Amino acid sequence: MAPRDLAPVQAAVAEAEKKTSGEIACVLVEESSDYGFYELFFSCAGALLYLALLILGHAGVEAWFDRLFWDPSPRRLELFYGLSPFGVMFLLYWLANIPGADRLIVPRRFREKAVHRRALVSFVESGVYQTRDHSGVLLFVSLRERRAEIIADREISRRVEPQTWDRILEDLGAKLRARQLVPGLVQAVAACGETLAGAFPRRPDDENELPDAPVYLKD
Asked: Could you tell me the domains of the chain?
């Protein structure tokens, strides 16, 4: 994704902040976790299942080897039983690393926790918590999981009901599932701006404390 693709989002942030002293930051990541444990567990479990099926169908496997080789040797069959599960494991691990496969392997609740944890890290890294009035809000999107999070600083939490952010997230989530990332972000930024304008009207001495441009992290 090129920076120019997110230019409408940057413009939406600048426009939204004209009405409020609050700050809006957008962070996008390719994936919130590598999910390495789940990929390895999936491949190992698949290899064990494959081995169990081999053992259960031993008679058929042995007959197949008899047909396959002119001079069948027990050593070949032993090597097949010992080595082929590793081949299956490596194949499954390769398949598990195909982009998008995580949604089929990793349970939804674990993906949701991973996105939330990454959003909290981004909230700190982007400096949203350091605004003068603690009126910053982070709009976080994890692309591979097609999930979004909104994290508001403590002063916003005192003035804005959580249900307000839930509604914005619901609309953004629908856009993400429809693969309309940029229009969804523009809509969400505008909604965040309207919410902040009511709780934190723009002041004469207002300063732009956070960059308007969205941050896109590939790793």
From this structure: 3-33+108-217 (3.10.310.50), 36-104 (no CATH)
